[in-house]
Task: structure prediction
Amino acid sequence: MPVLEINGAPLNYLLEGEAGPVVVLCNSLASTLAMWAPQVPALLAAGYRVLRYDTRGHGDSGLPPGPCTMDLLAADALGLIDALNLEQVHFCGLSLGGMTGQRFATLHGERLQSLVLCATAAWMGPPELWETRIQQVLAHGMGSVMDATLQRWFTPRGLARMGGELHSVREGILRTPPAGYAACGAAIRDMDQRETIRAITTPTLIIAGALDPGTTVEHARQLHAAIAGSELLIIPESQHLLNLEAARQFNTGLVSFLQRYS
Result:
């Protein structure tokens, strides 16, 4: 896959589709652009181009020295869009990707046709929770958080019926360098966008898994209340990676929303 150096970090990306509006897909913590595989065919069939990339410190994207912040992650997205000569895009991010989307829309809303925030939150305290996870990964590697991560991401029923998709998810977790997890985890730890997102005027859809124990329905409702005119979609019987666990419902809601703002 092609790589572009953005803000000092080599970013691995994939742009698919021949013509049409561009949908940017931004991955979660401890995953790669492969997490969006169920969405690509639906988006291409609906007439969109799809731009996926590995967040810095994840997958095949590099991690230069220095702290990582939401401002920097938003700047990475902007830099990639600029480098590809894209004027306006739709932006869809999940978890960390949704946090990046919030900051992008706050700072660069004029570059967006629409915004989709999935399984995410404007604040993910307490900081001690994230510091504990960061130190565990740095000391013991990504395998030490594998089971707990999968239990947060999927319902027991979802885990039982997933085959190759679950293998891909596990691979994405294990491929995440501990330093990349720590840097982006620190960005989440230090983030508080509860007030700044009130400035977002981009048409926004918020998608939440009804059973998500991390970025809960209450987090989604807080986003919905803060972003004027936003829409809220709650998908039943799903947890955090609802784009995988409930791909059909997710794709239907996503494409329907995008088509109204394309």
